[in-house]
Amino acid sequence: MNERYDYAEIESKWQKKWVDENTHRVTESDSKPKYYCLEMFPYPSGNLHMGHVRNYSIGDVIARYKTMHGFNVLHPIGWDSFGLPAENAAIKHNTPPAKWTKENIANMNRQLHAMGLSYDWDREVTTCLPEYYKWTQWLFLQFYNKGLAYKKGASVNWCPGCHTVLANEQVVEGACERCDSIVEKKSLEQWFFKITDYADRLLEDLDKLEGWPTKVKTMQENWIGRSEGALIQFKVQETDDVVEVFTTRPDTVFGVSYMVLAPEHPLVEKLIDGTDKAEEVRAFVKKVQQMTEVERSSTEMEKEGLAIGAHVINPANGQVVPILIGNYVIYEYGTGAVMGVPTHDERDFFFARKYNLPMTVVVQPEGVSLTPETMEGAYTAEGIMVNSGQFDGMTNTEAKKAIVAWLEEKGQGKLKVNYRLRDWLISRQRFWGAPIPIIYCDHCGAVPVPEEQLPVLLPQDVNFKPSGESPLKYMDEFAQTTCPVCGAPARRETDTMDTFVCSSWYYLRYTDAHNDQKPFAKDKADYWMNVDQYIGGVEHAILHLLYARFFTKVLKDIGLVSVDEPFKNLLTQGMVLKEGSKMSKSKGNIVSPEEIIGKYGADTARLFILFAAPPERDLEWNDQAVEGCYRFINRIWRLVEEFSRSHDGKCVAYGEFGDLGKAEKDLRRLTHTTIKRVSEDVGVRFNFNTAISAIMELVNGMYQYREQGNNEQVMAEAIETLILLMAPFTPHVTEELWQGMGHTDSVHHQTWPTVDEKALIAEETTVVIQINGKVRDKINLPMNMDSKEVENLVLALPKISEQLTGKDIKKVVVIPNKLVNIVVG
RNA sequence: GCCGAAGUGGCGGAAUUGGCAGACGCAGCGGACUCAAAAUCCGCCGCCGUCAAAAGCGUGUGGGUUCGAGUCCCACCUUCGGCACCA
User: Fold this and answer.
1) Which of A79, A172, A483, A679 has the fewest Cβ atoms within 10 angstroms?
2) Where are the alpha helices (DSSP H) in A356-469?
3) Average pLDDT of A662-684?
4) φ and ψ at A642, to 5 degrees?
5) Beta bridge partner(s), residue A39
């Protein structure tokens, strides 16, 4: 063993050995319990960033810790390698996306190895390779056969920056999630996955996810946006048409004083065509449609409406009320029509005041009589029904059910659950994605590509147009084909799939990464699933995590897997910040992992990133604190190296300890309390920062012992424990030291140290003495002393009795082995 | 507006069940070693106060429960995140 800690030599030596010996390969085995530890796989942008380092360091500690606990640990990695940056690079530098991606993967692969991560590299998956996307396409076909993939014309989100449509989940405050361009609306024929069919299960099963942060579950809950209410039908007075509204307040139907339609509602044109209102209404509709999505959905927007001259009949009381169109009614939500009840809805109240629409109170607080003229806002709380025929006198909660039942009997209403969640738009007008395996035939329509013809391969030699449009559309050799049904000339779908489709099932592919008959064998997926611990950034709380849950449920329904949730436990890590903001090129505050590893080694980089903050919290990068971690590793190195050198390169513990002195007992107690603390911090709480600080305390104790203690068995035990506890955090240096201590097998194949309960027992304890809750003295007492005895002893202490003279002792509280509080008047 | 998380020294953070607030680390200060420096080892390090001590104050604010509150309850403030003319 070197006297100096030479991280560069040590790390490359062990990394090579781990690769050569395939150290981290796993197979299914019944002899051990399984554990599936997964980190969100990276997009191969070209270089690892600190967020990756954090993500993979956390995962690696968990995987190594579980391995040392006797689990059969699956810890895989791969590449989420379809997507826009490759295509943009292709347009800019005229390199094929496949080449650019391959080079990036090679470089990042090297960087991952330099971190000393315990991946089973035999299971590496790359989503942009045909051997993977063949099965993405195959899964699309399964969805298609189940009726869960369909094409429809719809008003969709178009990102002018990315030249493609986006899913709702990819639009953030009206802008593109990737490039921040303002999203436009376009009417296009697009492919969708019917995620709304699973809305209820996706919502309900959130309850099963006890190992998920509430934050993420709440975000998904909000996104799904379930709301219970009723559909109510209003007949149009002038025609035979019926307007259906969705409302969460069917109890207020007797108070309806108008109806508002979204400008896009198809009935609008029908009802005004040929009337004298037609021009005015069309102008209004045009004005609304010219607003951007952001303007239109802003809460500050002035609510405007316009009566269109037609009327509806209230099914509850037969009243005839006017139909308006309003700029605040969203066609995509509910039925695109709302009933206006000014007295019991804030928005309706101000809208009605503005346009002088009538108001009727139908719910009021018990014992109070509300009058519309004196109301200053809508009454939205619970109350008693009035002006509502046979429902008068009921509570409005009772009336909700009763009125819907009554309307249902009349065939004019029913209960309805509404969701905010929209179907998942998966078409992308881009090249670098998995082609959607559909063929369009003039005779047979849209025909799925037969399974045996998969994969639909992306062409190799591609000329990108500067417009950014997908070149597939213009490549006849790709687009032209024959109909699999009738054999006539036909055209392929040239849209590709959203990359989130590829990443919705990769965790299943890892369980059987090279299967060329199926996406994965069921028995292998069943052996490894669920993912026991999933780790990644909170930015995927909705998109990826919702889609992956949806996929798992569909795959369960078609019998491909047995689980209905993919990720049992979820850890959402915080961001890595520098000078208070996220590291980014534009801010110029990036710290390169490669540089840090070059300067201090991977062990230091890993240790710092785990020590600086608990994993969920944002982490402020601090160069000096990194050095502190480097110093700590050196401190361990010196301690172990010196001991080993003075013991002929042997530090293998240990027989019986015999009778030990105080310093020896203290170190043994420290050693074993450290095992206990680190085991809880790593295994239960994932608080790696406090686990590391506990180990630091142990090292401090060992330095002290070196001056005071003289039993070398005790020191040897502490050293061996220290190395084992550090092994998951700093795998290289611990391996080197382990060998230097005379061991011949790998530290990473050792069993996690166990706590010797006897060593934990202390003979003495420090008891705090308080007077009226303020600390006045401390005293060392034998453990488990009788309370009354403690009380007498404490009251007799000079310092205490002095302060008690002339005071009236009201009560003495004794907490055994901890504290005495004397209450005086 | 609704939902969620957080607020502790100069800084990152700790306090797991209501029981010594500030573990551990960074920065800072002092000492040892050295011709000197670096490295290393040892010590100090909330505020106020003092020669030194004692006393006092102190976990966003204001109340409350309790022998005892960073921790529990009520009200509020601030920051961050999500959702939002959702009918």
Assistant:
1) A172
2) 396-409
3) 94
4) -65, -45
5) A535
- Alpha-carbon distance of A357 to A260, in angstroms, equals 12
Spell out which residues of A between 586 and 625 contact strand B, using CB within 7 Å. Answer: 611-614, 617-620, 622, 624-625
- Across the range A360-389, mean pLDDT stands at 90
Confidence of residue A725 (pLDDT cuts 50, 70, 90): very high
Q: Is the pTM of this model over 0.90?
A: yes
- Cα–Cα distance for residue pair A323/A337, rounded to 1 Å: 10
Distance from chain centroid for Cα A257: 45
Check if the beta carbon of residue A228 is closer than 8 Å to that of residue A317: no
Give the pLDDT score at A778: 86
Q: Which nucleotides of B are covered by protein (CB under 7 A)?
A: 3-5, 11-16, 19-21, 23-27, 39-42, 55-56, 67-69, 81-87
**Mean pLDDT score, A597-613:** 96
CA of A576 to C1' of B48 (A): 37
The CA–C1' separation of A619 and B77, in angstroms, is: 26
pLDDT above 70 for A780: yes
Dig out the tokens for A346 from the structure: 């804030």
Q: pLDDT tens across A143-157, in order?
A: 999 999 999 988 888
Cβ neighbors of A192 (< 8 A, separation 6 or more) are: A149, A150, A151, A152, A154, A423, A424, A425, A426
φ, ψ at A232 (rounded to 5°): -130, 135
CA of A608 to C1' of B8 (A): 22
Could you tell me if A260 and A355 are in contact, meaning their C-beta atoms sit under 8 angstroms apart?
A: no
Query: In what helix (H) or strand (E) does residue A288 lie, and over which residues does it extend?
Result: helix A278-290
- Bridge partners, residue A428, by sequence: A496
Write the CB contacts of A669 (distance below 8 Å, at least 6 apart in sequence): A759, A760, A761, A762
Q: pLDDT tens digits for A163-201?
A: 889 988 888 888 888 888 888 888 889 999 999 999 999
Through-space separation of residue A783 CA and nucleotide B47 C1' in angstroms: 36
Q: How many residues does chain A have?
A: 825
Whether residue A655 is predicted with pLDDT greater than 70 in this model: the reply is: no
C-alpha separations of A532 from A212, A511, A535, A729 in Å: 11, 13, 10, 20
Phi and psi (nearest 5°) for A172? Answer: -115, 115
Average pLDDT over residues A78-104: 91
Cα A201 from Cα A203, distance rounded (Å): 5
SS3 state of residue A774:
strand
* Cis peptide upstream of residue A455 (ω within 30 degrees of 0): yes
A73-89 average pLDDT score: 94
Report DSSP state, residue A493.
-
**Of residues 699 to 738 in chain A, which lie within 7 A of strand B by their beta carbon?**
700, 703-704
Name the token pair of A549.
Answer: 């849950």
- Crossing angle of helices A602-611 and A731-740, in 10° steps, is 120
Paired with A491 in beta bridges are: A440, A480
Closest CA to A181 of A166, A201, A196: A166
Tell me: the pLDDT tens digits for A410-425? 999 999 999 989 999 9
The answer to whether the C-beta of A456 is closer than 7 A to strand B is no
